[in-house]
Amino acid sequence: MGFGWVSLTTDYGLSDGFVAACHGVIARLAPQVRVIDVTHLVPPTDVRHGAAVLAQTVPFLPAGVHVAVVDPGVGTSRRGIAVEAPGGLLVGPDNGLLVPAAEALGGVRAAVELTNPRWLAPEVSRTFHGRDVFAPVAARLATGASLAEAGPALDPADLVRLPEPVLEVTPTGFTAEVLTVDHFGNVQLAAPPSVLADRPPTLRVGGHEAVHGRTFGDAPPGQIVIYVDSADRVAVAVNGGRAADRLGVRPGDPVPVRHPD
Description:
The strands form two sheets. This protein has a seven-stranded mixed beta sheet, sandwiched between helices. By secondary structure, it is of the alpha+beta class. The chain has helices at 18-29, 47-57, 99-104, 129-142, 243-247, and strands spanning 5-10, 34-39, 65-69, 80-85, 88-93, 110-113, 153-154, 167-170, 173-181, 187-189, 202-205, 208-212, 224-228, 234-238, 254-258. Helix 1 runs parallel beside helix 4. The protein has two domains: 5-154, 3-Layer(aba) Sandwich (Rossmann fold), CATH 3.40.50.10790; 167-258, Bacterial fluorinating enzyme like (Elongation Factor Tu (Ef-tu), domain 3, Beta Barrel), CATH 2.40.30.90. It holds the Pfam family SAM_HAT_C. It comes from Micromonospora inyonensis.
């Protein structure tokens, strides 16, 4: 079984030819396959951000082969892998980047290490596995090649997983780690909607007063609102501003949310 789509998620940026090279490899090997660029603006080497973006996006993409490359360990002993899930295939480094997306697509059903030299570029750069390993593997999988041909099977339990983000819940509030900061400066927390259930209409977020609302306009202009975002995570925004700047936080920072005194 093949796929008509390949998606690309990377930290390559847009000012160099890295993304075009990956597109070109896929086009030469699988010219009938269409490519969706999820983003190439993941903060450099920020694996957790890339994993969150990928996991929150793949459920809305057509079934396909999803390539993700945020790979500070490129050229080292870290493995290149392909993962099968009920909703598609994922290809990239074994550094925790792919597993959340696989879970979003139904869970890891099988995994292989990418060791078949016939599936890779004739000469593999030690610093550009997106072009020389992951893109050609994705193209072959999209055209219907068997996952088993890519390399030996791996135990899904042995795949690298990211540490669980901080989440501590109490009757009078919670503390959650920042997962991502988006283009608008909205702060997504590692907290499910349930932590906001039965909370009062105003809360203190990182020491600032915030409206407990459902959307940005529930807070007056310039004020903070805490709400459930489109990815079903608790998030913090400023109506007409940047919550990340107001709170002074970045991914990985803990944010305390408390009931008012």
